[in-house]
What we know:
Elements: E1 5-10, E2 13-18, E3 23-26, E4 30-34, E5 57-60, E6 63-66, H1 77-81, E7 84-86, E8 89-94, E9 99-103, H2 105-118, H3 127-141, E10 147-155, E11 169-177, E12 187-191, H4 212-224, E13 229-233, E14 239-242, E15 246-251, E16 254-257, H5 268-281, E17 285-287, H6 292-297, E18 300-305, E19 309-316, E20 319-320, H7 328-341, E21 352-354, E22 373-375
Parallel strand pairs: 12-13, 12-19, 16-17, 17-22
Antiparallel strand pairs: 1-4, 2-3, 5-6, 5-11, 7-10, 8-9, 8-10, 9-21, 10-11, 13-14, 15-16, 15-18, 18-19, 19-20
Helix pairs in contact: 2-3
Amino acid sequence: MPDPVVWKIGxxxxxxxxxxxxxxxxxxxxxxxxHVHSQRRQPRQRCRATGTMNAKYVLMNGEIIPATDGHVSxxxxxxxxxxxxxEGIRGYWNPDTDDIYLFRIREHFERLHNSCRILNMxxxxxxxxxxxxxxxxxxxxxxxxxxxxxxxVYKADEVIGVRLxxxxxxxxMVAVPMGDYIPxxxxxxxxxxxxxxxxxIIPARAKVTGGYLNSALxxxxxxxxxxxxxxxxxxxxxxxxxxxxxxxxxMNNELHTPSSTDNILLGITRDTVMQIALRxxxxxxxxxxxxxxxxxxxxxxxxxxxxxxxxxxxEVDHRVIGDGTIxxxxxxxxxxxxxxxxxxxxxxxxxxxxxxxxxxxKPHKRGKANSTTLAATPAE
Length: 380
């Protein structure tokens, strides 16, 4: 075994009182010893579904650099304490137009700015500047397939100590190929024993890196129990969301989704679904608290998110949903979404940002989401 690598971190004071005046005596410098093994690492398999890192270039603090030069120290605060926030952005390849369309990318960067404000972080680029950076990053990598963009802001100082203030904020973005995150042909879900984090614990409306431990626990539990995905409940027992997706259900020909007060991430795909349902089917969405047992008697259920896209659910807790097949409304939304994100529906061009070419018609003026929702009806 080679000689160990030793870092001298600095002096610390003993908590043991010594001497007649009870003074704290200094201890020797704290040393961290790392044994470096010569054993060769096993090669990682390339997994397109989960966006394995195989980019040629990455972006760090506004500069595009070779991916091999993109490094973050093991002592970085964001790595030690989960003090970061991020976005996931899809880009869809259309071979007919020879272009990648970045879907609702500006809205994603607006949400990243909101997450930064919640976490006392500063991102020194406007949403429009971030969009321009993303386009250039995809071009430099030369992707001509479905991709996933991951911008992240994180506390970058190499210090020990839990806090958000007085720390440097750094930013990076990667673009990698990505297929389906979860199946879109009908999945089986289990209600998790892990409860969804509360907004007063880790803010649910911010996309916080450390908060995804909650999702990881639920996801692993579900997979080990034979399910494709988990559904988390709030502390009050209401349905919140999947491990990385918002949830919709159809009951009595109406579309329902948990409200923002049920500790959901306010998903951009969620808003997309609500607008598609209204425009294509005349269905306004009811945002309300949903009980666990309502899942068992729903006519249709589907999950949605940037990574998950639209994923119909055919079973929850070993109970068949509807007739056990993908429902009519779910199928229509899946099909409409697939057409829209690939630039095949001109009326939705305002959601698309092309990478290599201009859109064939002038995009609609961007504005705030105009999806119509209904308030929950008070119980009588």
